[in-house]
Predict the 3D structure of the following.
Amino acid sequence: MPRAAQEPASARAASPGKEPRTARGRETLRRLLDAAAAEFGESGFHDASISGITRRAGTALGSFYTYFDSKDAIFAALVRDMSARVAATAAHVIAAGASGVTLERDVMAAFIGFARQHKEIYRIIDEAEFADPQSYRAHYTNAAARIAARLNKGVESNRLNPGDNEIRAWAIMGMNVFLGLRFGVWDTTRPISEVAAAAETLLRDGMAAKPLP
C-alpha cells in the first residue's frame, strides 16, 4: 500500500517533505493544526501569528518549522485538514447505511453538529477565498463531488429520481453551508434533528402547493 494511504490525514497536512514519521511527531502536528484553527478563527489570517500558534499548541517555535514553511503553509494545511474532517464526518454517516434523501438529511445533521463544535471553520474557509484561493475552491468542489457521487448512487438504486446531479449537489451543499451557519454558529438552540427534518421535507416534497382537487 502506498505510504500516503497509510498515513493519517493530519500527517499529510505538513509542508511537502516535512511529514512526521513518528506517532509523537503526528501528535505535535495535530496540536499545531488545532492551535492554528483557534488562532486563525479568533484573529483572522492577517492578524494571526506563528508565535500565537505555537503558544496555543504549547510547542517551541522550532517545532513549527519542523512541519511547516510559513504561516501561509499552515493556513493552507488547515483548510485541507478541515475539509478532510468534514468529509470524514459524512463518511461516518454513510457507513450507517442510509441512502437517498434520508442519507442527505443525516449528513446535513452531522455537519450542523460539526459546525457547532468547530465554529471557526466558517471564518477560516471564508478567509481562504482570498488567502488561499486554490484550497478554497478545492474545499467546495470536492464536497460537491462527494454529494454528486451519493446522488448518483441514489439514482442507480432507484431511491432518487434522475436529474442533473451536479446542480443538485451544489444546491444541497448550499443548504448545508447556510443551515450550518444559521443553526450551528449563530444560534444553537434549535434541535438539529428539527432543522434536518425540515430540510429533508424540502428535498423529498419540494415547496410547490399540491393542486386542489
In short: Residues 1-8 have pLDDT under 50 and may be disordered. The two ends are 62 Å apart (CA to CA). Residues 3-205 form a domain with the Tetracycline Repressor; domain 2 fold (CATH 1.10.357.10).
